[in-house]
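Retro notes
What went well: the complex prediction finally ran end to end.
Inputs used:
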Amino acid sequence: MKLIYNFILISVLMLCPASLRADTSSTAMDTAQSHGPETSMATQILSDANSDTNEVAQKQLEFTPPDEKTIIVLPQRNEAEAKEAQEAAPAENETVTEAEEEGPRIHDPLAPVNKVMYHFNDRLYFWVLKPVTQVYSHIIPEDFRIIFGNVYDNLWAPSRMLNNLLQLRFKAAGNELIRFLFNSVAGIAGTADVARDALGIKKQEADFGQTLGHYGIGHCFYLVLPVFGPSSLRDGIGLAGDGLMYPLTYVSSSDLTFGESTGIYAHEKVNDTSFKIGDYESFKESAIDPYVSMRDAFVQHRKKEVEESKQ
Amino acid sequence: MSFQEEAMINCIVRITFILCLIFPGSAFAGVPLETVKGYADKVLDVLRDPALKAEAAKKTKKDKLRAISEKMFDFTELSKRTLAQNWSKFNPEQQKEFVELYTSLLEDAYANKIMAYTDEKMVFSTEVALTEKTVEVRSTVLRKNGDIPIYYRVIMKDGSWRVYDVVVEGVSLISNYRSQFREILANKTPESLLETLRKKVGKA
């Protein structure tokens, strides 16, 4: 098992150099966008340079003898104008492209397959997940659903702790450890988030896909996973990696049947969705092309998380 | 006489200066945040108003939201930034129609997003200067199972701060629409995009 895990990790590290460049170029474009004044300053400098060259050209004109002046002036003026036009046009393009072309991109070579999977997830939500969740929320009061949510959150704490550690965020890792211990003991088996309520220590989200991103591994390409939703090659591997840190993975292989462990996962998903009914619908309503919108939102969101991990 | 006049003017100037310091309403640091907070509160009031929840009141609700958002957002700036290089593919008539349709779309999208959080508390925390003219006002929605950061990016135009982007959980609205439009315009004409928008806005 560990061998397979290591193999996957190494193959990802080897196979994604192209997306490394893609990520850095998108971050470069992003910094270009956020450094808006610098582009406007750049255009100012360019226009100053233009006026400088014009001044220089004029001085040159002054020094030329009057006989040749008329002949020489025109080409120099044209040159100056042409230079100005050339420098102005790319400057304009620069401000437009640099300021507007920002936004991370992701390769989507499997688009047809992803679209099918997207529609599958869409139907799954509306035909299965949403009705079940609505019944579930009706039966189970909110307080209990919060308790269930706390229990599942607590079970994911080891994964968060390890990922914070791998990202060299030692304070966050320490916090997660404290939270895990406190919530498991004082908040009985994680039912109450004592660490947050009494100690004020909030959850420090971290997942393995984010860790991989932290070390410069790009998404490689976009992948829509059944049930799990938008992901990428890197984040899909991240999910698998996180699964190895999930206590129930080890329990279920020995004590529970496949049906039971799926049932537990389903319960976690339904419980989580019960707080989020309406989010997906409003997302669809405001999107013109939901597939593209979801892909773009995913890329932006993950990029933000990777950036946060570097702070 | 002139010496006394000068002294008096000096005195008045000094007092005015001190008064300006005492009343920080004109201080730079707070203005963008206060502006955005004011607008967001107004929008939430309209959305929470029980009198406007009925289907029949939908039009009044929309009109009220439109009035607020016209002051809050800078839609021409938004449209240009969203279409970017594709802006020139539209003729002036189409550009005008696009700005109108995109305005409606954004109002609905923003109202939708905010409506999901009407029962939760929205806290405005800080503002971060992005560039000389733009500021990011940060707010958080306190939800039961996690906080959601909503950032408003504002630009100073004609003496007032206007929103040109809303970033929810790290996802910029403008960037998101830009990628959608880019994908559509790669395969279709501007006219067909306008047609899609017309249908979308007409339905909503």
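What we learned: Residues 149 and 169 of chain B are 5 Å apart (CA to CA).
What to try next: split runs per interface for comparison.
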